[in-house]
Amino acid sequence: MELSDRAKSIPPSITLAVGAQVKELKAAGKKVIAFGAGEPDFNTPEPIVQAAIDALRSGVTRYMPSSGTPEAREAIAHKLQTENNIECSQANISINAGAKMSINLALMAILDFGKNQEVVVPTPAWVSYKPMIELAGGKMVEVPTEVFSGFKCTPEELEAKITPNTKAIMLNTPSNPCGTMYTPSELQAIAKMLERHPEVYVLSDEIYERLIYSDVQHLSLGSIPEIAHQVITINGLSKAFAMTGWRMGYACAPEPVAKAMNTLQSQINTSITSFCYATIPVALGLHEEVEAMRQVFAKRAKLMFALIQQWPNTECVEPAGAFYAFPKISHYFGRTSPAGREITDSVSFTSALLEETGVAVVPGDDFGGCGPEHVRLSFACSEEQITEGVHKICEWLEQF
Description:
By secondary structure, the chain is α/β, with parallel strands linked by helices. The chain has two domains: about 5-45 and about 290-395, Alpha-Beta Complex (Aspartate Aminotransferase, domain 1); about 65-285, Aspartate Aminotransferase, domain 2. It is built from 13 helices and 14 strands. The chain has helices at about 5-10, 15-25, 45-55, 70-85, 100-110, 130-135, 155-160, 185-195, 255-270, 280-285, 290-310, 345-355, 385-395, and strands spanning about 35, 95, 120-125, 140-145, 165-170, 200-205, 230-235, 250, 325, 335, 340-345, 360, 360-365, 375-380. Strands 2-8-7-6-5-3-4 form a seven-stranded mixed beta sheet, with helices on both faces. Helix 5 (about 100-110) crosses helix 9. The protein is globular, with a radius of gyration of 21 Å. The relative contact order is 0.17. The model has no long low-confidence stretch (mean pLDDT about 95).
């Protein structure tokens, strides 16, 4: 009996694999300092939890419409109108089981198998983009970036990759794994370029928009009138609201795309969990709680960057958003670790680091572009953990 080519061709998520390995080691009684998961260490704010409990107790436990409740869609549309300056209505909204599902459905709505359609993606990029594009029948075309450019590409570099087969461009700002973000002027320049390609969609992944630690303002590409009809805005509640396990994401798309996404969802998982819809208006109305968490992340970002700056023979861009640092560690390739392990790439680097120090980071191989020269560290953890773990890495590197 054979598996499908699709099942055999898609690798497991490296970030989830690192998380699973850490859990196994901890279960075996070993101390591990983990910088792998992109998951806030805060509890979900109480008003959100209470909204779900109230919905449960009032009997909201049955099938729901695939497009979501009118109240939830209206809350999302209102948020996008007032905070992101995106002109939209309920008809443009699709509510899904996490932003990952929103991206999957959006890609399925615009890509076809057998047509050699391409999605242009600046890399390094989130590990799931490439598999999701391929599962939807497309091909990912990379626009490589480097640490010296802040992992950002120019409009000219993006446009050079556009061909008659290009169906979409995908941008993620602030970025996972790089922690950097495009300025409004840089995004305006990209939008100007995209005016010359009105047939190309833009998937704008803005899941980290509320987690910004610099004076750079977030700009939604969907707010730029000249390209608004091309933009599919992806967002969700997982990161800024500490709701990763709730699996709640959404998209704002041109009405035909949003309708197609909801139709596809109706045949895949029907909808998100019924009693979760009630939490969306509550969550989107929380500002003090979200800002308090952002301020903590901002302190952690500065702390982790300052400590990484002490590492010998490495380079790192200061995180401007999200909760990741992405240092370049390729200087150590071809060397031998303090315990005698051969370091050939970022995978062997992270494996030796975990075995010899008990510190877990994510190898950069699956992020594409220059990713194989880097590792990713998440600072969605305590300052004590950051201080101890990053110091341990520094001491380990000094012994090479």
